[in-house]
Amino acid sequence: MPRRKMVQRMLALGATALTLGMRSRSDATPKPSANAALRWGVDYGAATDPALARTCALLVLEPHHARPIAPLRGPGSILLGYVSFGEVERGRPYFAALEKAGALKAANPNWPDARLADLRHPAWRAAVLDRLVPAILALGYDGIFIDTMDNAEAMERQDPVASKGMVAAGVTLIAAVRARFPRMRIMLNRGYAMLPDVAPKIDYLLGEAMASRWNFATKRHELLSDSDWDWQAGRLRAAKARNPALGLMTLDYWDPADTKQVAALYARERAAGFSPYVATLALDRLVPEPS
């Protein structure tokens, strides 16, 4: 499931660490003000609660579940479909063709079922522009949520020769998506190495694991240090300086039963001017904000 991409990144997310022509119905969808706190959520499960979904002004969903999405849409809301630009899971229907074309590289060491995408390869660019994004829009989504773009920077750092130009190729790909689908909503998860160039091309930027994360070693949620939070907050704000209309979103992980701490996470992110959501690590259901 796509939620694995969020989970695998949590293995290494201290704020400074990195792991390895068609128009949608969004043409007529009003864009919420980026200055207002935006109630939003992420649910990659197949049984999204319609009542909770309709309370979200912005909602990220897994588009490959066979279901209508109209019951999940609230008045004036925006629905985004998940798409991984940085890697491809073996179960995806386009995996074999990309592998044959040589557009896939090594397996992700944290998730061997996924192969890293070569963002420089023309077959990958064609797949994104001609197949992946149009398929999501054809289902009625207003845009896309782009995940795993941190892979490009990690690949360049690990092998500067073989992966030379990977970040630049990611910038070019996002620019091409924006040019092909000018009115589509685009939300990017992190991808900080690309932000100086792509911030003007996107509508929303997500800071994942801003103030809290799941520690896989201790099997517990933990709060991140102030310096970690400041590191990521600085990159969000720098992107907004490049694009004042950019919506800044945050995603934290915590036990929903601990309503006091969950409320504190919401309060901290909102006080900083971000639009927060606090979820379970699995991201397979919507978790309402404590009253």
Structural features:
291 residues, alpha/beta, 8-stranded parallel beta sheet, 3-stranded antiparallel beta sheet, 9 helices, 13 strands, 32% helix, globular, disordered N terminus
Radius of gyration: 18 Å
Structural class from helices and strands? alpha/beta
- Shape verdict: globular
* H-E string: HEHEEEHEEHEHHEHEEEHEHE
Output the number of helix runs: 9
The helicity comes to 25-40%
Which stretches are poorly predicted, pLDDT < 50 over at least 5 residues?
1-36
Give the CA-CA distance, first to last residue: 31 Å
Q: Quick one: biggest sheet?
A: 8 strands, parallel
Strand tally is 13
Strand order of the largest sheet: 1-2-3-7-8-9-12-13
Mean pLDDT across all amino acids: 87
Oligomer: single chain
Strand content: 15-25%
Write up this protein.
It is a single chain. With 291 residues, the chain is an alpha/beta fold. It is built from 9 helices and 13 strands. It has helices at residues 3-10, 50-53, 95-101, 122-138, 150-158, 166-180, 195-198, 226-242, 259-271; strands at 40-43, 58-61, 78-84, 87-89, 104-108, 111-117, 143-147, 185-189, 204-208, 212-215, 220-223, 247-253, 275-279. The strands form 3 sheets. Strands 1-2-3-7-8-9-12-13 form an 8-stranded parallel sheet, with helices on one face. Strands 4-6-5 form a 3-stranded antiparallel sheet. Strands 10-11 form a two-stranded antiparallel ribbon. Strand 5 and strand 6 (111-117) form a beta hairpin. The model is unreliable at 1-36 (pLDDT under 50).
